Amino acid sequence: MPLGTLDRTPPPFFKQGPSALSKLMVFSALALFLMVADMRFRITVPVRSAMATALYPMQWLVMQPLRAASGAGTYFTSLHQAQASENAALEKLATQSEHALQVEQLRLENQRLRELLAMRERILAPSIGAQVLYDAADPFSRRVVIDRGQTHGVVAGSPVIDDNGVLGQVTRVYPLMSEVTLLIDSDYAIPVLNVRTGVRSVAFGRTGPSGEDLELRYTLANADIQQGDLLTTTGVDGVFPPGLPVARVKDVGERAESSFNRISCAPLARVHGAMHVLVLTPVGLNLPPSPILPKPVEPDPSSVGGAQR
After folding, report:
1. CB of 246 within 8 A of CB of 102?
2. Residue 255 and residue 73: Cα distance in Å, rounded?
3. Which residues pair with residue 233 across a beta bridge?
4. Is residue 197 a contact partner of residue 229, using CB atoms and an 8 Å limit?
5. Would residue 67 be called left, alpha or beta, if left means φ above 0 and alpha means ψ between -120 and 50 degrees?
6. How far apart are CA 152 and CA 129, in angstroms?
7. pLDDT at position 305, please?
8. CA 264 to CA 215: how far, in whole Å?
9. Which residue from 139, 103, 155, 119 is spatially nearest to 281, judged by alpha carbons?
């Protein structure tokens, strides 16, 4: 077949429409028209609203995994921050509680020191301030150890008081510390005076299953003593100054097998919680020395004999 008879036109399947330049011009003109029309007449607002409404469920569905992941991350972050804030708050609360306890302890200590100084002003005997270090190791006695000894002027037998009354008496003295036997020790006794009646008696320490207190022994059943009577030191023992508070009568009971009453007394001093005390000089050491009287002059035997002769 001769070449001139061949059809050079493309088949219908590969037919091309308008040229690319024509399409560009048409669509550019259409876009310009739509922009001008939308600016002037807002013709695309309803279309945009309808499309946004139609696409909202799909957008919401697509955003759910992202929101879930973001919410989970925020939850764990918030939980960690909440736990950290709680721990910080607990630590701050513990610190504030500790400070509050220290302030309360200092307030009580300051109050007791003021009361102790007030009692020191009322007592004429010389005194030495001391602090209780610890309880003695002997389980069969009621003793405490204070931080004052021979180098500070403490002597054996010195009375020891706190801001409420008589606490005990120094029984052992070391160079830098001393042992104080408390009133409630079973081997301790102190002369006392009933302020209401003026009757003297002796209070003995008592330690047992029923408690730790004082007992007035050898008190007749017909003696005038009542619950609540105040007992003070007598001052006749040469150790304690007179008028120091010792105890208060808490129970008066009769004994069927004896003519003496069973009288229990509660010590006024803090025998289990004293921290600061005063060590007094025994009254006997404060008494002025007795005057030395001159010896009588004996007559000379030789002179007497000469006079007789």
Report:
1. no
2. 82
3. 192
4. yes
5. alpha
6. 10
7. 46
8. 5
9. 155
- Sign for the CA dihedral angle at 210, 216, 218, 222 comes to negative
Instruction: Find how far residue 32's CA is from the centre of its chain.
Output: 85
For residue 121 the two structure tokens come to: 């002003």
CA atoms within 13 A on the CB side of 264: 13
CA distance 177 to 277: 13
Tell me the pTM: 0.58
Cβ contact 176:147 at 8 Å:
yes
The gap from C-alpha 228 to its chain's centroid, in whole angstroms, comes to: 32
Write a three-state SS string for the chain. Answer: CCHHHCCCCCCHHHCCCCCHHHHHHHHHHHHHHHHHHHHHHCCCHHHHHHHHHHHHHHHHHHHHHHHHHHHHHHHHHHHHHHHHHHHHHHHHHHHHHHHHHHHHHHHHHHHHHHHHHHHHHHCCCCEEEEEEEEECCCCCCCEEEECCCHHHCCCCCCEEECCCCEEEEEEEECCCCEEEEECCCCCCEEEEEECCCCCEEEEEEEEECCEEEEEECCCECCCCCCCCCEEEECCCCCCCCCCCEEEEEEEEEECCCCCEEEEEEEECCCCCCCCEEEEECCHHHHCCCCCCCCCCCCCCHHHHHHHHC
The first and second tokens of residue 58, run together, are: 């799909």
pLDDT along the chain (309 residues), means of 10: 57 64 87 82 78 83 80 75 83 76 72 69 78 85 92 91 90 93 92 91 84 85 88 88 91 78 90 88 66 52 45
